[in-house]
Design brief:
Elements: H1 3-111, E1 120-125, E2 128-133, H2 135-138
């Protein structure tokens, strides 16, 4: 075998060895990337599972909160309606009391019509009927 062929053969062997080393290095890097990607995938799957669990928990809390809010709104409506009814009842009572007081005043005025206007006066003040008489009606002259 000639030196030229031998040198060419050695050059080819060296080139193939260099390609083999590069290929093994690339394979090692790819295997590292695959392992890192598998690890990242497992971590992301764990995060996804955790987030889904948190989502379900928040949805359950949201449903419970909506239920509580609806219950409070219903109770508030009942309370407002009860207060409105109570207010109407109080107004009716006050109106009835006012009418009774006016009727009482008018009845007293009719009963005391025999007296002159300057001898007595009848008036309503702060929900009370007042009858003011002159002294001569209260005390007999002796």
């Amino acid at each position: 075998m000639s030196n030229k062929k031998f040198a060419a053969s050695e050059a080819r062997v060296y080139e193939l060895q260099r390609d083999s080393v590069n290929t093994h290095s690339q394979l090692y890097d790819c295997n590292l990337q695959v392992n890192n990607l598998k690890s990242d995938k497992a971590s992301l799957q764990n995060d996804k599972t955790s987030l889904q669990s948190d989502k379900e928990s928040l949805q359950n809390k949201n449903i419970a909160g909506e239920h509580n809010l609806k219950t409070l709104a219903d109770e508030s409506n009942v309370t407002i309606e009860a207060q409105a009814k109570q207010l109407r009842d109080f107004r009716d009572i006050i109106q009835t009391q006012s009418e009774l007081m006016h009727n009482l005043k008018n009845s007293i005025s009719k009963a005391l019509m025999n007296y002159e206007a300057d001898e007595l006066s009848i008036y309503l003040k702060n929900g009370n009927v007042y009858v003011s008489l002159q002294d001569k009606l209260l005390f007999s002259a002796s």
